């Protein structure tokens, strides 16, 4: 612990001052709709208490149809990037040697960052594995080969006591894949906090695949010295972007049974001339909805938002890309950034539209900045449920036609199901099978 704190203390004072000024930690506690909201809680600093060679910050992510990337960090500079794995505890019939990297950020030097892709793997199977040829054994369960399957969706996670509570609630009920639409560690250039975050989430991220996209707290630009940003994020959380023909770790897609998941980047170019826009066009065009009836999208800055916080920050991206999603009949769009929960009806171009995506904001994982308490009044008829509480969401894809979305309020000791709705896939809707722009049937402006 002291080693990590010492690293923080020697980091440039200017960066700490800027982070403190730009990202304050307000204490919020109010009565809203009869529910008493708990105040913000302090950041957890999770130390590394084992040897330099022992793997830490272990997490896994999906790669292609039947493979898994195992990522971990060691402080020792001579440890091997080896993963041994098998279907029985202590018996490793497979062995893969991966690669390692590291990075420098001002006076901070990362540990050795290892990545190894293992497989092919069987669906719905528990695998046991260890990293580096020694150390503790971990295990994970692969997603099923067919429906049903369940996603957990949490944005703006951070590493506070609320974060720990949210993750405990998530872990209390099984799921298949964890989706995070940006703002992971809230390190904000304080690199040891990336290490602390990795250690905090390891018990969860090592046993279910975590698929993430970037938020504003991952940018970490410093003029002239680090002008391009995302140095730590890209090094620590590599996603399978090459497999979906993307040229950037900041946006990609992947497939699970009957579902295509698209992770977009709110903080890289997205206009019609950009690589991301062209990639999204091509990615959507490849989807066969007869085989993949569900399409969901995740991004950080919400396109629709009735909270006072971050008003309009996703508007330029919405104007650039919304039509692509609408014409492709995307079913759901999840966002973070606003530290509250909000569920909208199906929308296209600021109007209710039964053939548009359902928009949901889930930026309530447990961040250190507190909750976004103030929603605009009177409520907009397009916004069907909104609440400034910490929590997490679950999307259970039941079959090719039906899914159930639920939001679980993080009420300290219990995760209370506060909102839930059945959803029909647009690919199975006869009313939405015609020309997209002929399907607007309700005209309520946002």
TrEMBL record:
<feature type="domain" description="Purple acid phosphatase C-terminal">
    <location>
        <begin position="356"/>
        <end position="417"/>
    </location>
</feature>
<keyword id="KW-0862">Zinc</keyword>
<feature type="domain" description="Calcineurin-like phosphoesterase">
    <location>
        <begin position="149"/>
        <end position="341"/>
    </location>
</feature>
<comment type="similarity">
    <text>Belongs to the metallophosphoesterase superfamily. Purple acid phosphatase family.</text>
</comment>
<dbReference type="InterPro" id="IPR025733">
    <property type="entry name" value="PAPs_C"/>
</dbReference>
<dbReference type="Pfam" id="PF16656">
    <property type="entry name" value="Pur_ac_phosph_N"/>
</dbReference>
<dbReference type="InterPro" id="IPR008963">
    <property type="entry name" value="Purple_acid_Pase-like_N"/>
</dbReference>
<dbReference type="InterPro" id="IPR041792">
    <property type="entry name" value="MPP_PAP"/>
</dbReference>
<dbReference type="InterPro" id="IPR039331">
    <property type="entry name" value="PAPs-like"/>
</dbReference>
<dbReference type="InterPro" id="IPR029052">
    <property type="entry name" value="Metallo-depent_PP-like"/>
</dbReference>
<keyword id="KW-0378">Hydrolase</keyword>
<dbReference type="InterPro" id="IPR015914">
    <property type="entry name" value="PAPs_N"/>
</dbReference>
<dbReference type="InterPro" id="IPR004843">
    <property type="entry name" value="Calcineurin-like_PHP"/>
</dbReference>
<dbReference type="Pfam" id="PF00149">
    <property type="entry name" value="Metallophos"/>
</dbReference>
<protein>
    <recommendedName>
        <fullName>Purple acid phosphatase</fullName>
        <ecNumber>3.1.3.2</ecNumber>
    </recommendedName>
</protein>
<feature type="domain" description="Purple acid phosphatase N-terminal">
    <location>
        <begin position="55"/>
        <end position="142"/>
    </location>
</feature>
<dbReference type="Pfam" id="PF14008">
    <property type="entry name" value="Metallophos_C"/>
</dbReference>
<feature type="signal peptide">
    <location>
        <begin position="1"/>
        <end position="29"/>
    </location>
</feature>
<keyword id="KW-0732">Signal</keyword>
<keyword id="KW-0325">Glycoprotein</keyword>
């Amino acid at each position: 612990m002291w080693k990590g704190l010492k690293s923080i203390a020697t980091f440039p004072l200017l960066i700490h001052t800027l982070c403190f000024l730009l990202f304050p930690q307000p204490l919020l506690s109010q009565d809203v709709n009869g529910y008493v909201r708990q105040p913000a809680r302090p950041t957890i600093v999770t130390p590394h208490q084992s040897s330099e060679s022992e793997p830490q910050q272990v997490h896994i992510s999906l790669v292609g149809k039947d493979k898994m990337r195992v990522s971990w960090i060691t402080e020792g500079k001579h440890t091997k990037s080896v993963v041994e794995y098998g279907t029985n505890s202590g018996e490793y019939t497979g062995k893969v040697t991966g690669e390692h990297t590291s990075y420098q950020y001002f006076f901070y030097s990362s540990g050795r960052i290892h990545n190894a892709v293992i497989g092919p793997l069987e669906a719905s199977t528990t695998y046991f594995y260890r990293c580096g040829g020694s150390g503790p054994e971990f295990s994970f369960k692969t997603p099923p080969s067919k429906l049903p399957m369940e996603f957990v969706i949490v944005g703006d996670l951070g590493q506070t006591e609320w974060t720990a509570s949210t993750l405990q609630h998530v872990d209390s009920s099984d799921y298949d894949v964890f989706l995070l639409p940006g703002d992971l560690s809230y390190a904000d250039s304080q690199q040891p906090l990336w290490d602390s975050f990795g250690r905090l989430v390891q018990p969860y991220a090592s046993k279910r695949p975590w698929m993430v996209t970037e938020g504003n707290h991952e940018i970490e630009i410093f003029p002239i010295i680090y002008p391009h940003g995302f140095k730590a994020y890209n090094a620590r959380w590599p996603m399978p972007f090459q497999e979906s023909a993307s040229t950037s770790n900041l946006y990609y897609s992947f497939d699970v049974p009957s579902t295509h998941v698209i992770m977009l980047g709110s903080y890289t170019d997205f206009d019609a001339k950009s690589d991301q826009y062209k990639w999204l066009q091509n990615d959507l065009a490849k989807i066969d909805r007869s085989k993949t009836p569900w399409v969901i999208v995740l991004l950080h800055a919400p396109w629709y938002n009735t909270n006072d916080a971050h008003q309009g920050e996703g508007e330029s991206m919405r104007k650039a890309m919304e039509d692509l999603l609408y014409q492709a009949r995307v079913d759901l769009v999840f966002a973070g950034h606003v530290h509250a929960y909000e569920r909208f009806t199906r929308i296209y171009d600021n109007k209710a539209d039964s053939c548009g995506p359902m928009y949901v904001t889930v930026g309530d994982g447990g961040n250190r900045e507190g909750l976004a308490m103030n929603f605009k009044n009177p409520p907009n008829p397009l916004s069907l449920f909104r609440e400034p509480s910490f929590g997490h969401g679950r999307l259970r894809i039941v079959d090719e036609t039906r899914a159930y979305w639920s939001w679980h309020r993080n009420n300290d000791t219990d995760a209370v199901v506060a909102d839930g709705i059945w959803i029909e896939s647009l690919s199975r809707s006869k009313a939405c099978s015609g020309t997209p722009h002929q399907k607007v049937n309700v005209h309520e402006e946002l």
